[in-house]
Structures are given as structure tokens and as C-alpha cells.
Specification:
Layout (H helix, E strand, L loop, with lengths): L4 E3 H9 L7 H9 L4 E3 L9 E4 L15
Parallel strand pairs: 1-3
Antiparallel strand pairs: 2-3
Helix pairs in contact: 1-2
Length: about 70
């Protein structure tokens, strides 16, 4: 399932655990210089996933980002 937004920390963890979305170094570099990233699909239209410093935490929302 596509995520609307995710933090650099969450993406870094998923990349280090084998997610083949972004390379670890790219996430580290963007996070260090606070450059927001937007990951888009080359197969379908849509806004993709925004990777940024912080996202609003909804205490009622599930905490699992990836499996």
C-alpha cells in the first residue's frame, strides 16, 4: 500500500532492512540537508510518497509503516 508521507527516519530504517525503494545513502543525504523527497511511480499517476523531516502523528493511526 502506498503511503502519503513518511519521515526520513522511517524510510532510512526500511531502506536498511532491504526495501528497494531508495538507496540508504540517498535517504541519509536528503535527511542531513533537510531536502524533502517525493517518490513517484513510473507506472501510474499519483502524488506518490513525500519523505520529509516530520509528519503529524495521529495517535489513533496504525504505527506500522512497512513489513
Amino acid at each position: 500500500k502506498r503511503l502519503a508521507s513518511i519521515t526520513f527516519e522511517e524510510m532510512l530504517e526500511m531502506a536498511s532492512l532491504g526495501s528497494k525503494v531508495l538507496q540508504i545513502r540517498a535517504v541519509e543525504f536528503a535527511g542531513k540537508y533537510q531536502v524533502p523527497l517525493r517518490v513517484l511511480s513510473s507506472f501510474e499517476e499519483g502524488e506518490g510518497t513525500l519523505i520529509s523531516i516530520e509528519k503529524n502523528i495521529d495517535m489513533e493511526a496504525p504505527l506500522v509503516s512497512g513489513i
